[in-house]
Design goal:
By secondary structure, the chain is an alpha+beta fold. It contains ten helices and 18 strands.
Length: 444
Amino acid sequence: MATVVELPRLTDTMEEGVIAKWRVAVGDKVKRGQVIAEIETDKATMEFESFDAGIVLKLIAPEGETMQLGAPIAVLGKAGEDPEAALAKRGGGASAPAAPAPAPAKAAASAPSAVPALAPVAAPAPAPAAPSAPAAPAPSEANSDRIPASPLARRLAREHGLELASIPGSGPHGRVIKADVLAAAQAASASPAAAKAAVQAAGAASEVDENGRPYATFPNRQVKLTPMRKTIARRMTESKREIPHINLTIPIHMDRVSKLRNELNESLNGIKISFNDFLILAVAKALRIHPRVNGAYTPEGLVEYGDVHVGVAVAVDGGLVVPVVRHADQKTIKRISLDTRDLGKRAKDKTLRPEEMSGSTFTVSNLGMFGIEAFTAVVNPGEGAILAVGAISDEVVVEAGQMVIRKVMRCTLCSDHRLFDGADNARFLATLKKLLEAPMTLFA
């Protein structure tokens, strides 16, 4: 019998996903373990291997559309099998309702309050005889639960507070689809928006350039949230709401690191050590000295992680991911350099595996390449602290009564005040400063 393929959970925090690309088409033969789609999750774009074998009878989920976890995305089976029968037998579970069937007269009569007195659905089927039923603008499909609509259209209608019966459907047989709901939502907000725009236009009309021409006005643009951006918003809100942050900044002289880095890059064939590689190694060594910083707060007690796994924040299109350099305190700087470059490249390509983005015990976020001098970051839930790293710049400092130029980098330790106090924070930063200002100690 035909099998309905559902959207799988590919990461531990995944709640919805987007079919970035189908690797198969209707009619293709699929083997178990064959990659059939690329799915964009909250963390990366991942390959989905089929758990079943068969011929692709139907592709339900279009590319680029957000689907809820467990929603049907495809149907596999034998040649000649009816995919709609498999979907109907599935029964439209709570995770992803199947296309609705016509409502029986009894169901319509049992919920008269759900029948809205609004415009009829486009191209309605002939109404069954029901002399005792009150007049309605549409047949039995006027029941909002039985309006023919895609699962995504139903969810969008609920989110925008719209009645499905009021939305003309442009799909087959008057089916309401995503585009119909979005158009209705835009129309519903047009009146207040138009009034606001008129007020703004009236004010703008009085402003003209030196030639007497009014300035051009441009429409607003709404950008759809990706699964990654939704997860970032949820986790950062959770962090700022639940974690009392404490932030301390320290300047670190990087002259010796700069000199040692140049020497290493001249001696290592084809490998370029970065300042960030030195930073990750120094952080890992400092975490081993200060185990409380390498921990997290839980309601049951404070956790001090035994291993040192340093997460490295990487900016990607549409968001941020944190690949993990595992056992960073035990690795050479050469190994750290190779790991960070590989992880960074695959992060930008969105090909990281879930296990490569989980399990970090501490995070480093470096914005120095953008010229940022210093900043504060948000603690990643499940960790106790994050190090925010600024740019390295030449500054005049006073040493032994003399003004000298030094390469200065400012680091801010942003930490969970429930886990440790300001003095613990300061001691960690002092150790980090000592290691980086005498970098040969990193290799002792």
